[in-house]
Design a protein that fits this description.
With 141 residues, this protein is of the alpha+beta class. It is built from six helices and seven strands. The strands form three sheets. A three-stranded antiparallel sheet has the order 6-5-7, covered by helices on one side. A two-stranded parallel sheet has the order 1-2. It has a two-stranded antiparallel sheet with strand order 3-4. Strand 3 and strand 4 form a beta hairpin.
Length: 141
């Protein structure tokens, strides 16, 4: 379908959930094709329910909920606007805990001063987290 859409050398291509129901190899081939088209300067409107795809492929993301545009920006700006920094997992002798911080180095140093940190992990916010904050977490019919 992608090849057929490109036969007439369009300036704009609309892709409506192109990876639904495809195997992992085909999915990656679709991603490679989309990234190559983007490199050539083609405008692509890509609809998906898979946030990791949007995060990987899109320069800008629009979040639409119940027919209303709720947010529109770059992935990084959406994360900055709707998430409170990175999630830091801290393990010490007394147990494990998580903290959020926009200044992870300072937060880790402060935590280590309270109690020596034996192990830590740092997770960046995801577009899925942004989506849930923008649209709410309730399951809808």
């Amino acid at each position: 379908n992608i090849a057929a859409a490109l036969m007439h050398d369009p300036e704009l291509v609309l892709m409506d959930e192109p990876t639904v129901g495809v195997d992992a190899q085909s999915r990656n081939a679709i991603f490679d094709s989309i990234l190559a088209l983007r490199e050539k300067g083609l405008t692509i409107i890509y609809t998906t329910h898979y946030m990791e795809e949007a995060e990987r492929l899109c320069d800008r993301v629009a979040i639409i909920d119940e027919g209303e545009l709720k947010a529109l920006d770059t992935v990084d700006n959406l994360k900055e606007t709707y998430c409170e920094g990175v999630i830091i997992g801290l393990e010490s002798e007394s147990g494990t805990r998580q903290i959020r911080s926009k200044n992870p180095v300072d937060a880790i140093i402060a935590a280590h001063r309270e109690e020596p940190v034996l192990r830590l992990t740092v997770e960046n916010p995801t577009l899925e987290e942004v989506f849930l904050k923008v649209t709410g977490r309730k399951l809808r019919e």
